[in-house]
Automatic annotation (TrEMBL), chains A, B:
<dbReference type="InterPro" id="IPR009799">
    <property type="entry name" value="EthD_dom"/>
</dbReference>
<keyword id="KW-0732">Signal</keyword>
<dbReference type="InterPro" id="IPR011008">
    <property type="entry name" value="Dimeric_a/b-barrel"/>
</dbReference>
<dbReference type="Pfam" id="PF07110">
    <property type="entry name" value="EthD"/>
</dbReference>
<feature type="domain" description="EthD">
    <location>
        <begin position="51"/>
        <end position="122"/>
    </location>
</feature>
<dbReference type="GO" id="GO:0016491">
    <property type="term" value="F:oxidoreductase activity"/>
</dbReference>
<protein>
    <submittedName>
        <fullName>EthD family reductase</fullName>
    </submittedName>
</protein>
<feature type="signal peptide">
    <location>
        <begin position="1"/>
        <end position="20"/>
    </location>
</feature>
């Protein structure tokens, strides 16, 4: 019976430890990270293939970025938030990175390869914003 | 001794249950959420006070959105990601919400109050993108 009790205490400790590690590995904020937001403007006649972007293009770029990339997100434009205004962007892909200089070193030699893939999913040139996560 | 054993099992179950709830409340992805991105364009002579925005404006809007708001983020524009292009946006504030219709119902009666606060931190009119998180 003593043995069962101690076994339970050990299991309890292990599970509480897993619980606290879970909290550490998924911080509530991305504060301090650099975001590279690739924004595809909407206008009449412009197209964007979200499936290709999600399954081919973004994984390709993510592979180029390597361990500097913390995560990436994809969003699909739905509407302008201002009544009677056109949709500003059809889609946005965002890379959350640790270092901007490492990003530039990784991307520069691959820029032509990345741009050559644009034609496979869109006929628009993106706007790119580099920003710092404040909160 | 039996009592201690059962107490340990109960504690273990409770802690495992907390662990699984933790995973649920902090998902690795925001997939399916709606994003409202309020983007402040950069141009010569335009200003933006990030401190006021972070400490006053965003908490005020967050209060209006209530429980429909999952989280909000603030980012500060650093550069254009395209060489020799101007910075596209000085700052972006983003609300991650569950329901767009609830968002509109909450914001509409408060729109004038929110806009009146703009002059306290910027002299530019934002562009607003409503999008759906695909990944």
């Amino acid at each position: 019976m003593e043995f069962r009790f101690f076994l339970s205490v050990i299991l309890l400790t292990a599970s509480l430890s897993a619980f606290s590690q879970q909290k550490k590995s998924e911080p509530a904020t991305d504060k301090g990270l650099i975001k590279v937001s690739v924004m595809y403007p909407f206008s009449e006649g412009k197209t964007f293939n979200v499936d290709y972007y999600e399954t081919k293009h973004m994984p390709m770029v993510a592979g180029i970025l390597g361990s500097n990339l913390v995560k990436y997100t994809i969003e699909k434009g739905v509407a302008s938030g201002i009544p009677n205004q056109p949709l500003p962007f059809m889609a946005v892909g965002t890379f959350y990175i640790k270092s901007l200089s490492e990003y530039q070193s990784a991307i520069t030699p691959k820029r032509d390869e990345i741009r050559a893939d644009f034609a496979n999913y869109t006929n628009v040139i993106p706007v790119i914003l580099v920003s710092e996560v404040v909160r």
